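Q: what sequence does this backbone want?
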């Protein structure tokens, strides 16, 4: 089963790194928090290296 990325929104500090690196995967919601709207628009490797490992507060996670 494919993994889905999700953002623990209360922890997000809206730095914009994930949205900037992977705009087809992450976007800001109406309250300015990042959310994953299409986890399949990038490879798991890219999401891992350019979002999960880049997020300064480590609030992006995999859900199996
Ligand atoms: S990289 Fe992390 S803190 Fe920055 S916008 Fe994305 S989820 Fe929020």
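A:
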């Amino acid at each position: 089963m494919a993994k889905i990325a999700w953002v623990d929104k209360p922890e997000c500090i809206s730095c914009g790194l994930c949205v900037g690196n992977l705009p087809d995967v992450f976007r800001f919601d109406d309250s300015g928090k990042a959310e994953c709207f299409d986890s399949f628009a990038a490879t798991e490797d890219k999401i891992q290296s350019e979002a999960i490992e880049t997020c300064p507060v480590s609030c992006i996670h995999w859900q199996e």
